[in-house]
Amino acid sequence: MFACVQPSSSVDRLADGLGTLLGYLMRTAEGDIFRDLMELDLSPSQVRALFLLDRAASPPAVHELAAELGLSMAAAGRAADALVRHGLAERHSDAVDRRVKRISATAAGRDLVGRLCAARRDDLRRFAESLTEEERTGLVNALAPILARPQVRALTIGPHC
Q: Where is the signal peptide (predicted)?
């Protein structure tokens, strides 16, 4: 039997608060994109792979995709195969080493990523509109130093969501 443990530190309180907020945001998301993802039968790893392919400076090889996603080569290969089957990615030979197969997002894959990003932003905008001006200002001010951190900026600068 598990007992509900009261958060004992500011780290625990923040983690619990963020978890509650993220759960709320996910449950109130209105985007039809979740239905689209269910129809495509994409796993979370496949969606993550598609986002990585969309933002990659150059098409990665499957072993590079595996390393970036923290997956085994086999799991990354299966994710790539599923994306190719759905027409969201394509494989092609490396220009230097024909034995290496690279994978890149197709126009349909980039379109899906764009729709996912737009749906997420619309949901976040609806949440922001539900806040009072004072709550919005407080949240913007609280997030500013966190969003300015180099490790956060490195992964969030650019047109991608």
A: none
Comparing 32 with 22, which gets the higher pLDDT? Answer: 22
Angstrom distance (rounded) from CA 11 to CA 28: 26
Which three-class secondary structure state does DSSP give residue 144? helix
Per mean pLDDT, which of 86-100, 129-143, 144-158 is the most reliable? Answer: 129-143
For residue range 88-109, what is the model confidence (pLDDT) as tens digits?
Answer: 999 999 888 888 999 999 999 9
Is the whole model's pTM more than 0.70, yes or no? yes
Q: In 29-149, which ranges are continuous DSSP H helix? A: 33-40, 44-55, 62-69, 73-85, 107-130, 133-147
3-class SS at 71? coil
Other Cβ atoms less than 10 A from the Cβ of 29: the count is: 16
Q: For position 19, what pLDDT does the model report?
A: 93
Task: Give the angle 105-109-114 at the CA atoms, nearest 5°.
Answer: 115
Structural domains in the chain, sorted by start? 31-127 (1.10.10.10), 131-161 (no CATH)
